[in-house]
Amino acid sequence: MKLVSFGDELIAGDKAPKILADMLGFEFVDRAKKETSNQTIFRDVIDYITNNNDDCFILIGWTLGNQREITWNDQTFIYNENKTDYKDNHVNRLHKYDDILFDKLLVAQHRASEAYTLQNVLENKKIKYYMYNTQDCIFFHEKTLKYLKALNGRTYHNPLNKESSMKFFVEKQNNNNHHQVWADFLHSKIEVPQ
After folding, report:
1. What is the pLDDT of residues 128-138, one digit of tens each?
2. Is the pTM of this model over 0.90?
């Protein structure tokens, strides 16, 4: 069995998902990226399960909502509202539209629908999975309510509470080994395939 991890810089490499895979005795496949967006994570999971028929457990760490995958001049990159040093000034000029690109409701609608879609695809393919937020949460609004109610609470850890995201959860613990703390927490939450 493989544990295939998707997410951002907080989980890329030999961090909590790798520790969890070792705890479970699973082979570890690291698909997390140092620069990513939720759109990229969504697409990467779909690409992986479409192109691989291996016996796997999918672990998804959704990242911050203030990052977008953008293609400009045949280059695909992650556009971040907090980054202002893009080499192409045309990209830097996008910042005047950040209030539209990163509107809380728009981001929440995308994120809730991506999580809901992945949940359904994975369950229809009978692939075991678990989702959590690495650094923030899904903004609650009546326009996201339909998707949020449909998310499976057994396979998505508290998507509406920022304090439950990995970063904030481990910082509240009285333990400096944050990745072990998060791996232990995930181990207690997931339903391990046999």
Report:
1. 999 999 999 99
2. yes
